[in-house]
Write a structure and sequence with these properties.
The chain has about 160 residues and is α/β, with parallel strands linked by helices. The protein is about 35% helix and about 25% strand.
Length: about 160
């Protein structure tokens, strides 16, 4: 199975920003939907050039880190993110992505290896066409490989509803 085979599961409108947009605009866009874990950064032609993870936003909001040095001293260091003004300042300029021709197993490998839960899907010009998450990959896999298990889980859940 390829990513294009689960096109109906794509999040059609993931958060997309330009690198010149402010971090405040990024924060506003991300908090609109609490399920959002990424914002994707595109150039003026709409091509994917970077991404910002929710963790990067947290680092921006909470820029100080306590670091234990030695056995008894505690010092506080400052994150570079504190000085960030634009999305481009905090974006990862090597975003992970898949194309519609990528197999679901290859996509799963990327998700697992990179310890991420979602990926943008891009076309041949690197324009974002949507986003897929690990949840969609697992659900599709289970439906294809062991549909009887999905049906038995539905039946068990019906019994718990009464």
């Amino acid at each position: 199975m390829k990513v294009r085979d689960v096109r109906n599961l794509l999040v059609k409108d993931p958060v997309v920003m330009g690198p010149e947009q402010s971090v405040e605009e990024l924060l506003a866009a991300i908090i609109k939907d609490p399920r959002t874990r990424y914002a994707y950064v595109v150039d003026k032609k709409g091509r994917l050039i970077g991404s910002v993870r929710m963790n990067d936003v947290v680092r921006y909001l909470f820029p100080f880190e306590a670091v234990v040095e030695g056995s008894t001293e505690l010092s506080v260091g400052k994150y570079a993110y504190f000085e960030a003004k634009t999305v481009g300042d905090i974006m990862d300029d090597s975003p992970r992505f898949v194309k519609e021709t990528t197999s679901l197993s290859d996509m799963a490998d990327i998700l697992i290896r990179e310890k991420i839960n979602e990926l943008p899907v891009v076309d041949d010009q690197m324009r974002i066409v949507g986003q897929l998450s690990l949840y969609e990959v697992i659900a599709t896999y289970l439906r294809e490989v062991c549909p009887e298990r999905i049906e038995s889980n539905k039946d068990m859940n019906k019994g718990n509803e009464s």
